[in-house]
Amino acid sequence: MSLFRVGSNTPAAYALQSLYKINEQMGIHQARLSSGKRINSAQDDTTGYAVANSLRSRSSALGAALSNVSNAKNIMSIVESGYQAQMNILQTIKDKVVQVADGSLSQSQRSAIYDQITELKTELDDIKDQTKWNGATLFATTKTFHVGADAADTLSVTFTNFDSSGVTISGTSAAASTADITNVDTAIDNLAGYIQDVGDKSARLSSKEDTLSVSISNTDAVRSAYEDADFAKEQMEVMKLQILQQTAVSAFAQANSAPQLVLSLFR
What we know:
Blueprint: H1 10-35, H2 46-100, H3 107-130, E1 132-133, E2 136-137, E3 141-146, E4 154-159, H4 174-227, H5 231-257
Antiparallel strand pairs: 1-2, 3-4
Helix pairs in contact: 1-5, 2-3, 2-4
């Protein structure tokens, strides 16, 4: 452009346009530094915005599932504690029926022992009724726990009922106590199976808890790669743009002052 034509100042227009672009870019990087995020709106990176939000949603769902697993483990612990308390009572009942089988006892002594067994059986029922979660009895129920982020990620557990009806005590004689010993042994085996089932399900929940924790960490790491700002890189870009900003202002000032040379023709 000739310096002696003042109808337009193309270099100044170019310098001004460049300055606007630099200021816009600086605003983007400063926003990233202030928010800590590389993507602050969809226009920053439309694909990255969609992916980051999807990953954030999944990470949140995984966190909720991890909380569900923790609750499930608490419920399993309550049920197992109830079963274990009943097992302790069964072991005591077993001792009593073995004692009754001894022919050295008198009938009154044997009757007294059976009275104790009756009270112990009543305690079995009390434990069943007192094993609760959120005010509801857990024995003889099925709980379905949601243990993942997807619809199909469930784990169902049935807590088999156990009470005094599972322990048959037939009589008060030494001969009858032999059958009682067998009945109590059967009850102990049944209850041990229920406890084992709870233990197996608890082990699965612990495994799911570990898996969920790792999944949350990995999902958040991928989301961070898409969304979070690299502060070192952003600061470097800001410093570069600050230099370009200063040179653009200088170029704009020089381009604006250049047409003033025309005035020298009129001196």
